[in-house]
Fold Alanine racemase.
Amino acid sequence: MDGGVADFRATKLTVDNGACGYLTIDLAALGRNYDKLSSIVAPARAAAVVKADSYGLGASQVSKALYARGCRHFFVAHFIEALRLRPQLPDNATIFVLNGLQPGNEAACAEGGIVPVINSLDQLRQWSDIARSIQRRLPAVLQFDTGMSRLGIAPEDRSAVAGHLQTSDDIDILFIMSHLASADEVDSGQNADQLAEMRRIAAEFPDHEVSFANSGGIFLGEDFHGVLARPGIALYGGAPSGGVANPMEAVVRLDIAVVQTRTVPAGTHVGYGGVHVTKGQTRLATIAAGYADGLPRSLSDRGAAYYNGVRLPIVGRVSMDSMTIDISALPEGTLSFGSLVEVLGDHQTVDDLARDAGLISYEILTSLGHRYNRQYR
Ligand SMILES: *Cc1c(COP(=O)(O)O)cnc(C)c1O
C-alpha cells in the first residue's frame, strides 16, 4: 500500500481506542477494482454484491464509495440488510434481496422500495397479490435455477411463470438472473452447461435481459456478462478465479499489536494443549488477535504473520484473543510490546491466509472481527 501506512507502522507502537490492531480498508483500491470490473463487462454494467456487511468490510462505507464511482445496483442476501442499507443510499440506487421475498415482510418490502429476487412461482404470485392490494405495479427480478439447485425458479415451473406474466401486468420484471456454481474454476464444464441452460431460459423470456456473472463469471468471457454483472469478492480484492494470478488490487490490510515477547529454551510447550514443543531456543511474540477476531483456529501451527517481509510462523494453537508467533528470524529487539505485525498486507493476501487456514477468502473476510480499529482510506 502507500508509504503513509508503512510510516505509521514504523512509528506508531500503540493502537488507538484500545483496539487489538488496525483493519485498514482502502476505499480507493475498492473503487479501482469496481472500475476495472466495469470496464471488462462494458457495455454491460457492474452491480456490487454487498451482502454480509460487504463481506465484512462495512456495507455502508463500501456502498457509498461505490455509488460515488457510478454503481447503482446493490445486492444483499437478507431483507434486514436491505432495510439497513436503504437509508444510506440515494433513491436512484436499487437494492435487491437475493434470498427473495421474506415471509411476513412482503408489504414492508414493497413499502421500502426494495426489489426482491423472486425465487419461485409461489413468491411471484405473492408479490402479485401485494401489488394488487396496494394498487401499484411492483418491481422484481426473476432468478432461475440453471444447475446449482440452491435458489431460483425450477425448470418445471418456467412455463407457469411465463403464463403468470402473460395474464397479469402487476409485476415489473427488471431482468432475469441465475448464479454460477463453478465460476471460479475456469475449466469447469458446469460453466458451459449453465450458460446453455441460461440461453434456453432467455429464449423462453425474450422480453427480459439477463444478469449472470459473479466475480468469477466476469472472467469467463463476454457470453457470461449479460446486461448486469454481480461481482462481490473481486471488488474486495479476493481472487475471482483459482489457479491464475489475481488481477484485483488488495483492499484490506490487517496489522496486529504484539502484547508480549519472551525467549524460551528448547523443549518448551506453546499454547493450549501444549501441542507445539520448541526444537531449539526460540523467541516468541504473542499478538492480540485470535479466532474471535476472525483468525481461524485452523491456522494453528500453519499460518504466519509478517514483519518487513519476514515470515513469522504461528506456533501452537490459535487462542480466542491471541496467538503466538515465532520471531526468531528477526534481529533481537525488533519487536516489543505494542509493535504491529502484518497479518494481511503486502506480504500476505487474503487468499494466502485462507489457503493456510483451509478456507476460502470469503470466509476470512466475512469473519474479520469487531475489535479492530477500523480505518477507511
Ligand atoms: C454472493 C453472490 C454473488 C457474488 O459472488 P462473488 O463470487 O463474491 O462475486 C453474485 N450473485 C449471487 C446470486 C450471489 O449469491
Q: What stands out?
A: Residues 27-229 form a domain with the TIM Barrel fold (CATH 3.20.20.10). The first helix runs from residue 3 to 11. The chain has a mean pLDDT of 95. The two ends are 11 Å apart (CA to CA).
